[in-house]
Amino acid sequence: MMVELACIIYLLEHSARNVHLKLYILVYNVSDVHKNTCIIKMEIDYQPEDSPVSLFDEDCIDHVKDMRLEAEAVVSDVLFAVSEMYVSSNLDSALAVAYINVETREGNRYCLELNEAGLRVVGYAFDQVDESLSTQYFETIYSLLDTLSPGYREAFGNALLQRLERLQQNGQ
């Protein structure tokens, strides 16, 4: 039996003049999560001046996200699908940057940097930042872990399948 499962992710980015909505639709063939994965990406730009109601307070333009809080949210989102993951207390985190240690289900350890540009691998051990690395930034923890860990992909697919089965059971 082939079961396809769709996961929709909305990302909203904004600046003083522009709102950018990104819509990702991930379709998984749950019988084999490693294959037949389709990602559909749609991006929409919206100009706030087109609307009679302002969506954002102009005084918040200089507001910077607290990346340590963002990092805690990242950890809580995917902790179920990795062996170990936590925000580093040994590396200096600030409003603009935070570091996350993660061990994949395969036993590989990484130190991740989270900033406004996204997430990237900065070291291949906990609490290690290798300045000579120039690794790719990822917009989400899901896309980063998807490239690093087949075990993550499997756990994520299984979790989605379990939720779908619970929904089906509750509907009957």
UniProtKB/TrEMBL annotation:
Pfam families: GSKIP_dom. GO terms for biological process: regulation of canonical Wnt signaling pathway. It comes from the Eukaryota. GO terms for molecular function: kinase regulator activity; protein kinase A binding. Residues 68-167 form the GSKIP domain. GO terms for cellular component: cytoplasm. Belongs to the GSKIP family. This is Gsk3b interacting protein. It comes from Oncorhynchus tshawytscha (Chinook salmon). The gene is gskip.
